[in-house]
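for the writeup, i need someone to sanity check this before i put it in the appendix. the sequnce is what the collaborator sent (i think, or maybe the updated version? ugh). structure was predicted straight from it, no edits. if anything looks off just tell me and ill rerun, i have time this weekend
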Amino acid sequence: MLPERLRLARQYLDDAEYLLAAERLASAVSRAYYAAYQAMWAALGDPPRAEGWRHGAIIQHFVRGYWFAPAHPATGPGLLEPLRFGLRRLYHLRLAVDYTGLSISRASADLAQQTVAQTLAAIDQHTPGGPL
């Protein structure tokens, strides 16, 4: 577990909540995604190669759950499968707001915040010794 990345994830979530309260929905979604990204990186540790985690790969590895249950079978659903759809949706929403200027609803921005909160809760739940 990389506590500095987890601290950064929580900071980004705070930033996302601030932006959401200011009705800056696209920016809130972008910060929410990076909060989830940093949280997953904190749970997984550094990637096998030095250049950093690729966005699709980090979701895949995180949802599999090997970071807290290394003996989990390589086939079948991941241990955190209920988070996969929300994380993928958050990733695609972030791409849309950052690269196409998509206008989004408050409900979508709220859902982005909820996805990050669920991701952090899963990390806290599966961290030996409790939350960092």
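The mean pLDDT is 92. The chain has one domain: 3-126.
thx in advance!!
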